[in-house]
Design a protein that fits this description.
Elements lengths: L8 H7 L12 H4 L1 H12 L4 E5 L9 E6 L2 E7 L5 E5 L20 E2 L6 E2 L5 E3 L23 E7 L2 E5 L7 H11 L8 E11 L3 H8 L5 H4 L1 H6 L5 E5 L4 E6 L6 E2 L2 E2 L7 H4 L2 E6 L3 E5 L3 E11 L2 E11 L9 H28 L16 H24 L1
Antiparallel strand pairs: 1-9, 2-3, 3-4, 4-8, 5-6, 6-7, 8-9, 10-18, 11-12, 12-15, 13-14, 15-16, 16-17, 17-18
Length: 390
């Protein structure tokens, strides 16, 4: 299956026009299982995809199953304290090895026939492979049957996986945004909790909604009362990150307390920025906290989101700041819940033959258009590489 089997050249050409004249992605990009399969193959697999926090696997033998680009993986900390990523597939009959997080494992044993792997993925035991009580077989070489690995790198305690192994270094991918944020010390991040959501919509609707502030007056009247659409701006950071920002962020207070904040210049204290790291990591940075939303495609019309929030420094995590931390979480949760209805309406309407690609506001939808174009450009580039290799 190729892009051209789902999206016509005319539809792609219309998307590539200047924003004021462009037509957006057509309905099959949001409703087709085949298109989601292509996205997993051509976008998620070759990219850096957020996979969780290193603190979730704190010690040797601790592991977590995760799904990246529709593929089951294991994140495991080995005896040297390094975090490894493996495909969650036994080399014998391809059984799933791990369903739940584990702790303190000496090895990973398959629950089907007990083939066993060490914490670096090497196959170390093949019980009864040569018959009852015979654990070796003539001509059978286990040395090449270890777990298939995937590339994993970390930034600020956050883990990212690249399935194809040929993405640029994680730091290179993050650099355009981190240069904008050079005044912030991300070594001070302290995890403060979060929420999870299941949404009946395509994952791109969630991303596109996050990329624009056009909907604030209608969907978020409370937020718009103190951070108006007019207070927001759009920005781009390299080819694969874009978002909106506000110039009137006001740190909250509760019971006479405010959260400890980064020591910043006055203009940065009042700034909040909300970029998307393409394809699916939504982020938000303010003077006193940082958050991310991992947007996980499950099916063309089903998306799971994981919202995680971080505060700055140990002082922010003291019990005396518990009320303001919880208030901050709940305020964002309220905003995110307000978005659910509209992104589900988008999905429902895309089932109609009247649903075209839609049009863009040349002022308000620049980042949305940029995201859609980059999605197709990256898919086309990856297809071209595959064709050249055939």
């Amino acid at each position: 299956m190729r892009i051209e089997n789902i999206l016509t050249p005319a539809a792609i050409g219309a998307l590539m026009r200047p924003t004021v004249k462009a037509t957006g992605l057509p309905a099959p990009a949001y409703t087709s299982s085949e298109f989601l399969g292509l996205e997993n193959e051509l976008i998620f697999g070759p990219g850096w995809i957020y996979a969780g926090r290193a603190a979730e696997i704190p010690g040797p033998g601790d592991g977590r199953p995760v799904t990246i680009a529709g593929q089951p993986l294991i994140l495991m900390r080995n005896r040297a304290g390094e975090i490894k990523a493996f495909h969650n597939v036994c080399s014998h009959r391809n059984a799933l090895l791990l369903r739940q997080p584990c702790s303190g494992r000496a090895a990973i044993a398959c629950p089907y026939h007990a083939w066993t792997y060490d914490l670096d993925g090497h196959l170390i035991a093949t019980p009864h492979v040569g018959g009852q009580g015979i654990h070796h077989a003539e001509g059978f070489d286990p040395s090449g049957l270890g777990l298939r690995g995937a590339r994993v790198e970390a930034w600020a305690g956050l883990l990212f996986v690249n399935l194809t192994g040929d993405a640029p270094p994680l730091g290179t991918w993050l650099k355009p945004v981190l240069q904008r944020w050079s005044a912030y010390d991300f070594g001070q991040l302290r995890h403060g909790g979060g929420r999870s959501y299941e949404i009946r919509t395509n994952w791109k609707h969630a991303v596109e909604n996050y990329l624009e502030s056009y909907h604030l007056p209608v969907v978020h009247p409370g937020l718009n009362s103190y951070s108006r659409m007019a207070d927001h701006y759009c920005f781009f950071a390299g080819e694969d990150a874009a978002g909106q920002g506000t110039t009137v962020y006001a740190p909250g207070s509760k019971e006479g307390r405010s959260l400890p904040a980064m020591p910043l210049a006055a203009e940065l204290v009042q700034r909040g920025e909300y970029p998307v790291f393409y394809p699916n990591l939504l982020t938000g940075l303010q003077a006193d906290h940082f958050f991310l939303i991992d947007v996980i495609p499950v099916a063309p019309g089903l998306t799971r989101e994981r919202f995680e929030i971080f505060f700055f420094g140990d002082a922010a995590m003291e019990d005396s700041h518990g009320a303001i931390r919880e208030q901050t979480i709940e305020r964002w949760n309220d905003v995110f819940l307000e978005d659910l209805d509209v992104v589900e309406r988008l999905q429902e309407a895309h089932a109609s033959p009247a649903a075209t690609g839609g049009r863009f506001s040349p002022v308000q939808d620049q980042a949305v258009h940029h995201f859609q174009r980059r999605l197709i450009e990256r898919m086309q580039a990856r297809e071209s590489l595959a064709r050249a290799a055939e």
